[in-house]
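During the no-cost extension, the postdoctoral fellow (Dr. R.K.) reprocessed legacy sequence entries with the updated structure-token encoder. One reprocessed record is reproduced below for audit purposes.
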Amino acid sequence: MRRHLLFGLLLGVAVLCSTGIQAQNTESYESLMRSGNTKFASKDYISAKTYFEMALKQRPKDAEAKKKLDETLVKIQQDSQRQEVFYYHLDAGDALNAQNKYEEALAEYEKALEVFPDDKYTGAQADAIRAILKERKDKQDAYDTAIAQGNTLLEEENFDAAIMQFEIAKDIFPQDNLPKERIAEAKRLQSLYNEKVARFDKLMEEANNLALRKNFDGAIQKLNQALEIFPNDGQALNLLQTMQGSKATNDRYNAYIAEADRLYESKEYKDARVQYQGALSVVAGDSYATEMLSRLEPLIAQQDAEEAARIAAEEEAARLAAEAEAARLAAEAEAARLAAEAEAARLAAEAEAARIAAEQEAARLAAEEAARIAAEEEAARLAAEAEAARLAAEAEAARLAAEAAAAAEAERQARIQEMLSAADGLFAEDKFMDAKAKYQEVFTIDEGNAVATAKIAQIDGILAKIAADEEAARLERERLEALRPQYNTFIKEGDKHYASKAFDKAVESYAKAVELGLGEPYPVEMIDKINRLIEENKLYELNSDAFTMTANTPRRFTFNPVDVASRRSNYVVIKARNITPGKSFPMIVSFGSDSGKNGGFVLAISENEEEKTYIFRIGGQYKWFSENNTWIELISENDDVEVSLVMISRSN
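Re-encoded structure tokens follow.
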């Protein structure tokens, strides 16, 4: 109340100047000097100044009036300085008191009382703090112990126990912010720790799943990532050692299988059998190697049968050729025998009788022709039989080869379809790496298979997207972690301003935290909480209907003076929207009373079109606190603006 009384004197003088001095202008110099001296003696220096100034207007060169006016101005300056000292310490005391810094606040209040010892407000504040300090002295040891134990437990990451200690401290001094801050910090650290545990558990689960699919490289990568979070975790270390051993075994197994499959596709079945048996020596009972060995046995038997058939066919062809050759030689021998007999008959005929020479010659010639024809026919018959045998052997060999090829092709197609079906199943289960490997197996049988090629291209696209998404997620996590210290700074500033009920500064700090884009709900919740508090504690809603303010045209709102008890905590809330977006411009907010303007502030209207809520702690301006203000005036400089709310509120 002292503050209002002091500045009430100044207001009284202003009223005097505007209402009563005009009548005094007709008074004599002596009367004016007497009135001035009277006011000076009563320490009403502002009124005394007015009388001495009026006296000087009647006698501009009067030394006495000038001397008294100078003395009065000195007194006014001294009073002003005393008041400034008083309010400086009073405001400092109030600010420190709001922050629960009681010793510092008491020191400031006591300095203010040295200036105005009888000030009731300051005295009451000092007495209240002394009572608090007395109470705190009895509880301080328990409080300090709880805070210290809480800090120790927090360092040990025993979050629940730490929070319990901070809660004890908070119960001891409910008005202190430190326990609340430590509780919030403990919960934040607990949340971060839980996030680390969740990330660790997820990586361990992924490692186990990859190991089950024998993707040991992937499992080892996940385990190394998990150990980056908790480097000394025994489970992860043991599993990593196991995975590394399994990987070595799997690599040996895969080497055997790859060579065996290559030999299988090359139809080197017996050599392939040796490699599959080698794979079984690494992984006993392996189903794939066992299955392939079972497939090899009939193939090897078939291959042996085909070889035997080929040899038999070649031997049969050789036999038939030999028989044909023998027949040819026999025919030639028979022909020679017949020729010899004919020659003998001819000679006998010549010797027996010349008479029948012509007939015998004809008979000889006929016999020779018949023998020749018969020999040729026999030779032709034998040659035909040999050719028929050869063709039959070749046809049988061709038939056997065709049947073997058809069987091999049918088996190959069945194997291809089996591999594609198995790969499709893995693909449907989102096991893309396993599916890709299975599709690639198809190429060992059918190089360039269109279905496998298309599916592998599709999987590569999916894996590339997954990798890109993971990389983007990793970069986003790194960005958020890099911004975390700055975010924490803004949050601490906002909490500090909120605790001291400097809501405008608190909103500014929380808004900066939101703009960092971490997605944390806390700053948004605090801004909403402040908006609700201001709405719940509104004193005057001067305007609630949207209207357009023309540039450079003032708009004034009037109200009854705010109760002096709540002026220090007053806020002005304005909702405005830039209706010509693209640039920012100032809006001047002034306040005053019938006697004129007492103060104001400037708002920077946002350049975008979105409506924005502006909160200004007008109670921080001394003229708002000390004067009975009755109007607020808005002027938008250079550009039009839409205003939808003008409200006066308080923090409590």
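Strands lie at 538-543, 547-549, 555-558, 570-578, 585-593, 596-605, 612-616, 631-636, 641-650. The two ends are 19 Å apart (CA to CA). The remaining legacy entries will be reprocessed before the final report is submitted.
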